[in-house]
Amino acid sequence: MPRGLFITLEGLDGSGKTTQIKRLAVWLKSRGFDPVITRQPGGTSTGDRIRAILLDSRSSGVAPMTEMALMFADRAQAIAEAIQPALDAGRIVVCDRFTDSTEAYQGGGRQLGSEIVLELHRVICGNLQPDITILLLPSLNASLARARRRNTREEAQTGKDENRFELEQDGFHRRVWEKYHEIAEREPQRVVLIEGDGTIDQIHQKIVQAISEKMLILKQA
Predict the structure, then answer these.
(1) Domains plus CATH for the chain?
(2) Which helix (H) or strand (E) holds 131?
(3) Quick one: which of 98, 76, 84, 64 has its CA closest to 187?
(4) What is the per-residue pLDDT across 47-100, written as a single tens digit (0 to 9) for each?
(5) H helix runs in the chain, sequence order
(6) Average pLDDT, the chain
(7) Is the sign of the CA dihedral 101, 105, 108, 114 positive or negative?
(8) CA dist., res. 103 & res. 68, Å (int)
């Protein structure tokens, strides 16, 4: 059985990933697929506990290396428990964030550099690569404003605090944004960069077009 299709969505918090993943799942199901939808950090019971540590604003004393190690611990568990079994079964996996996020946030934002992130991915994750990555990069200020409003609203409604990264200074988020651009320039065959503040429908159409083209290429290979 051929390996399934591994799709990742990347971008700053507030870039619209969650909305677009929901739209993509509906589109895939309408075409007869049964996609596995997951996220990082999280997506497994172990990963959800790691997520609670990483995103809670009370985890203010977590060192950058510890943060990165926890991200990879979560990822290794997700690959073993959810992603690889689904791919081996020939299914489509759609993942909200993957190692590009670690390279952007810890490598760029925390200034740990790309080299250590990519080496840890090779060792810990078996160098598993997405078939296609959709990178959403609307304007930096708009993304941050949306993310902060969303997290404030969710905390008021559910009591769940996932504000830790949004509390970082603008310089941190600028470094993340720049590192994402660097990744897109380095890997244009894998990463589809969608910039600007288009409508939800416009962005959805760009995403499904890119994925349709990737599916056709893989089918012909």
Answers:
(1) 6-220 (3.40.50.300)
(2) none
(3) 98
(4) 999 999 999 888 888 999 999 999 999 999 999 999 999 999 999 999 999 999
(5) 17-30, 45-55, 64-78, 84-88, 99-102, 114-124, 140-158, 170-186, 200-220
(6) 92
(7) negative
(8) 9
User: How many degrees, rounded to 5, is the angle at CA 218 between CA 217 and CA 221?
Assistant: 90
pTM: 0.92
Tokens 């075409």 locate to 31
Residue 135 has pLDDT above 80, yes or no: yes
**Cβ-contact 109, 168 below 8 angstroms:** yes
CA distance 221 to 219: 6
User: Which parts of the chain are beta strand (E)?
Assistant: 6-11, 36-39, 93-96, 132-137, 191-195
Render pLDDT for 19-59 as a digit per residue (tens, 0 to 9). 999 999 999 999 999 999 999 999 999 999 999 999 988 88
* Gyration radius (Cα) of the chain, Å: 17
Task: Work out the end-to-end distance of the chain between its first and last CA atoms, rounded to an integer number of angstroms.
Answer: 15
Q: Read off the tokens for 98.
A: 């993957």
Closest CA to 139 of 10, 8, 15, 16: 15
Q: Which of 19, 194, 168 is nearest to 106 (CA)?
A: 168
- Widest distance between CA atoms in the chain: 50
